[in-house]
Structures are given as C-alpha cells and as structure tokens.
Amino acid sequence: MILTVGHTKGGVGKTTLALNIAIARALAGRDVWFINGDRQETALIATTIRAEKGITPVIACAQYSDGATLRQQVKQTGGKFDDVVIDVGGRDSTALRSALTFTDALIVPFQPRSFDTWEFASISHLVEEAQSLRGEFPAYAILNCADSTGTDNEEAINALLDYPLLKYLDAPIGRRKSISTAGGKGLSVLEYTPKDAKACAEIQTLIDSIFI
Ligand SMILES: Nc1ncnc2c1ncn2[C@@H]1O[C@H](COP(=O)(O)OP(=O)(O)OP(=O)(O)O)[C@@H](O)[C@H]1O
Ligand SMILES: [Mg+2]
C-alpha cells in the first residue's frame, strides 16, 4: 500500500505519525520504504539515527522533495516494497500534489486547535482536485496531540463536517511525551522503553484502522 501523510499545515505531527506507521509496519514483518518528501530532512535523520545505532528493523529511507522525482521514483521502485510511507512537508508543495496523484490513501493529521481546523479547506481542496483527475481515494483525518480533557477535540472533529472529502478516522493520538522522545531517538513509541501502554495502544489502533 502507498500511504501519504500530508497536509498544507505545518507542525501537525506528519513526520511523527509517518515514522510510527512505517516502523509499526516493519515490526509486523512488512518490507517498508519510507520516503522523506520534504526539504526538511527530519524523517531521513530519524532513520539515519536508527541505522547508526544498529536498531532493527532497518527502515529504508529516501528523500525526494521534488514532486516529479517523487512520482517517478515511486513508480519505478515502489513496487518492490510491501508498503511505501511518504512524509510530505507542511505546505502546498509539488511533492504533496504529486503524491495525491498516485497514493492509495492520504493521512491528514490535525491538532484540536483553530489554526488547524482553518486549514481543512486547503487540503480538502487539493484532495478534490486530485480526485477530479484520478477518481476517489480515501483521505483520513487523524486527531493528533488530542487533549485529555475539555471540548476542543470534539469541536475540531465537528469542524470536519464541512469537509466531507476528509473522513474522520476514530483513532486519536494523545499528546504524549513518549511519542516525541521516541521519535528523537529514531524509534516508534512501540519500541520505546519505559513502555507507554496508552501510546502503544493508540498507534496500534491507528495502524489497524488504516490497514484493514
Ligand atoms: N502525539 C504527539 N505527542 C507529543 N508530541 C508530538 C506528537 N506528535 C507530534 N509531536 C511533536 O510535535 C512536533 C511537530 O511534529 P512533527 O515534526 O511530526 O510535525 P510535522 O507535521 O511533520 O511538521 P512539518 O510541517 O514541519 O513537517 C515535534 O516536536 C513532535 O515531536
Ligand atoms: Mg514533518
């Protein structure tokens, strides 16, 4: 499956979730190709840290931040892998637009904040454009850094009702220190010790919801 984690909004947790998804799939025995589709090299650095420490499974990672190259490389090499996970930058980029022309599914992380919900319009518009060219594909909105109390989660989820092309996937990820610390060590939270059972359960639910 080719999965793109993308949004026009920066800092919503795209790289964090993409890294966790790629590693979770590799831990489940899948041959995974992780693509850093951003000029920022965060995903590449995380997998390099992992490789330097000899952590297995090794995650094959390439960087194609230009849309035409991304498309060409995935077409040429993507078929050799069970899963391709593409992390694209937080803006309207050629890599994001290119990925939308061939991805099997799009994951759109969002945080329960107004600035995030205001950006639903622009990513929904890009999905609409891509679907008019190639037909329907699923675009799943994932609540990331969910609050543990209050009504902001619910309000952000309700804001999605105006954007029917973005389907809310009921697999929220909480704001958890273990997730950010693990990422900084090149790890999925599934591999991180001390084990954060709640974070692991959330990531597993996300995986099970995407790869049904
Ligand atoms: N669920 C989470 N819990 C705690 N911290 C998180 C979580 N998700 C992301 N973060 C932290 O939020 C920050 C932004 O995350 P990340 O870099 O993954 O976002 P991004 O959408 O890829 O950003 P960009 O648009 O710059 O590529 C990072 O410091 C990351 O560790
Ligand atoms: Mg990123």
UniProtKB/TrEMBL annotation:
It holds the Pfam family CbiA. CDD domains: ParAB_family. Residues 4-188 form the CobQ/CobB/MinD/ParA nucleotide binding domain. PANTHER family: COBQ_COBB_MIND_PARA NUCLEOTIDE BINDING DOMAIN-CONTAINING PROTEIN (PTHR13696:SF96), P-LOOP CONTAINING NUCLEOSIDE TRIPHOSPHATE HYDROLASE (PTHR13696). Signal peptide: none annotated. InterPro entries: CobQ/CobB/MinD/ParA_Nub-bd_dom, DNA_Partitioning_ATPase, P-loop_NTPase. Gene3D superfamilies: P-loop containing nucleotide triphosphate hydrolases. This is AAA family ATPase.
